[in-house]
Model the fold of this input.
Amino acid sequence: MDMSSEMIHALLPTFLVVGLGASPVILGVIEGVADGTASFAKLLSGWLSDRLGTRKWLAGLGYALAAVSKPFFALATSAGWVLGARFVDRLGKGIRGAPRDALIADLTPPEQHGAAYGLRQALDSAGAVIGPLAASALMLLLDENMRAIFWIAVIPAAISVSLIVVKVSEPRGLRANPQARIPLRRKDIARLGTAFWRVVALAGLLLLARFSEAFLLLRGQETGVPAAYLPLLFVLMNSVFALAAFPAGALSDRIGRRRLLLAGFVLLAAAELLLAVPGSAVALVAATLLWGLHLALTQGLLVALVADTAAPELRGTAFGILHLVAGVSLLLASTLAGALWSLFGAAIAVTAAASLALAGVAAASLWLPARG
Done:
C-alpha cells in the first residue's frame, strides 16, 4: 500500500500548487487534516480490536478504504476533491494502523519489540522508496501526466488488499475484551499506567515540531528542482529511513530507547534549519537525508515504547491513543507551517519548527528515564 500511496503523495504538492492553483496554506491544511483523520480513526480501531478480539479484519478494512480512495485523486478538479480523497485514504490508514501495530506486539517477544517495529518501518519505507521512483519514471514516460500516474497507483493498492485477506492470520489466543470502552474509564486510564501516559505526552510535544514531508517537496520546487525529479527527494528520504530503521530498533533493544529518540529529534531540528538555506540544492539534499534518519530513529521507537509500557489487554487502545495524540500534533504542525510559510516565507516556518524540536528534546531529556 505504501508504494501506491507514495506514488500519489510524491506528486501531490505539485499537483495541488501548480496544477490546481492551491496555496501552501491549503497544502498544510490538507496534509494536517489527513494526518489528524488517520489518528482519530486509529483510536477507534485500536479500541475495537481489543473489544472484538480481532486485528486482521480491521486492518483489512483499512487497506480496502485506502485502495478505494486512489481513483479520486485522478478525477480531482479542485483542492476540495483532493481533500476528500486524502480524507478517505488517511481514514483507511487510521483504521489499519493500531490493529496492525497491536498484532505485531501480540506476535513478538517484549525483548524484540524495537527490532520488530524497526523491521515494520523498514518494509514500509521500502514501499515508500519504490513509489516515488515509479512516479518519477512515469512522469518522464508519460510527459508529466500526473492523472495517468494516479490511475496506475490503483494497481498496487488492490494487490495489498488481496495479500492481507489471503496471507495474514489472527494470533492464537487473542480474545474479545468486552470491558474495553471508549471513552476510557478512570480505572482503564490507571491500568494503562504512568509510564504509558508519559510516552504519549512526550510524543505529542515532540511531534509538534514535525510538519508534513510534503513541505520538503514544496521547498524543492522553490529551489528549482524540475517537477519530474521532485519525487526523488522522497526516494532519498525513504531510502535512509528503510536502511536505518531496523538497525535503530534493534540497537534500542540493547541500549534503551531514550538516547536514540532524543538524537532523532535533534536531527529533525538540523534538517529544518538546513531547509532555511535559500536556493541551495546541497542544503536541500542534506536536509532530506537527515529527515530520513530522524524518522528511522523515532517512528519505530515511539511505537516500541508504547508496546513496552501498555497493558496487553488494552494494547490496541493504547496504540490508538498514541496515534491520536500524534495526529493532533502533526495537524497543528502542518497547519502552522503552512500559515508561516505563506505569510513570512519558508525560512521563518522551518526555523520555528526547529526551535520547537529543540525545546521538545530539552523537555524529553528531563521526563524520560535514563534507561527507557
User: Anything to note?
Assistant: The domain at 2-166+186-367 is CATH 1.20.1250.20 (Growth Hormone; Chain: A;). The mean pLDDT is 83. The chain has 16 helices and no strands. Residues 315-344 form the longest helix (30 residues).
